[in-house]
Sequence to fold (419 residues):
Amino acid sequence: MAIEIRVPTLGESVTEATVGQWYKKPGDAIKADEPLVELETDKVTVEVPAPSAGVLGEIVVNEGDTVEVGAILGSLNDGEGAAAAPAAAPAKKADPAPAKEAAPASNGSGSEMPPSPAARKALDEAGLQASDVEGTGRRGQVLKHDVATAKSTGATTPSTTTAAYVPANVPTPVQSLRVPSTEADASREERVKMSRLRQTIARRLKDAQNTAAMLTTFNDVDMTAVMEMRNQYKDLFEKRHGVRLGFMGFFIKACLQALKEIPAVNAEIDGNELIYKNYYHIGVAVGSDKGLVVPVVRDAEQLSISQIEGTIAEYGKRARNGQLTIEDMQGGTFTISNGGVYGSLLSTPILNAPQSGILGMHRIEKRPIVMKDGSIQARPMMYLALSYDHRIVDGKEAVTFLVRVKECLEDPQRFVLDL
Fold:
């Protein structure tokens, strides 16, 4: 009996998705709840599991197709179809297949995930098999950068059936002055269709620039007190709470203090009205293979630093595994983005509409600072950037907000005393 595989409900206001990739081929034996196909929505990537054990029958949509909620993706044969699958296997053995066709079935980590399209192209160009490369993607999938890493480290040997690429000649100085060929350049380019998530990120960021009267103000903070407290208690903290003590918990606590004093930074515009939020859902920007996502720490003012750190750690893990849900990223009232983890010294973050404020964190570096007593000391300093919607937040409010964040971080006892 054939069982229809349909697009599941994807979340509030999400009506369609793009087919990312099929993990199985028609005729493959399937286990119950085993992922069959990946769907990309505007906000998250979801996997459609098998409704039961059986054999994958017909696939009616291709990778890259747009499908609506409830649409048929394919069919699954159970019962007699599942029993017939092993008997069909010997017939496949009689039809020899090229080595490259068999490569997607596994890789160095023993995964059954096929390489990504970009990785498949890189493998072909390098004369490699997927089994030669250790995949770092989900369930061991080989990604493009895995191929590049394997080539640069010499961790694999090119296939003897494919000759390595050697330039026919080295251009002379005179040749190098010639007008380059557009066709030659095109042959070295790679076109990859933007995912729905990337398209949505691009659209929302541009909409924020076009709609809000966005402005950024800056300050810096001496991180000495926070770093000393963290170094003193991080081992005990992790032992007691089972989660590492990072910097984000301190920053969220500091922002909560500032948001309570400057409520306009926690507000939004709706038509001709201002909506002041008397709750604090703090979005934390997290980088992932699919792009930047912003899961939300809800009711952060009711959480301890350990609970905040635990929530962020869980979100980070789920973002890396592609398991964030749409609900995880809805309803934020203020956002924090930590470009410092990538080495950023200074930036002007873009608002996460319809929010009116976003705080940018940056890398910590020692700089000479003139102290109150006139001495010069090397202190661990971080630049802070607050981008805000000038339609709601005045310059004085924005500057005051950053000053309050600075004061809390330079004197963490304010958290305890609620000052």
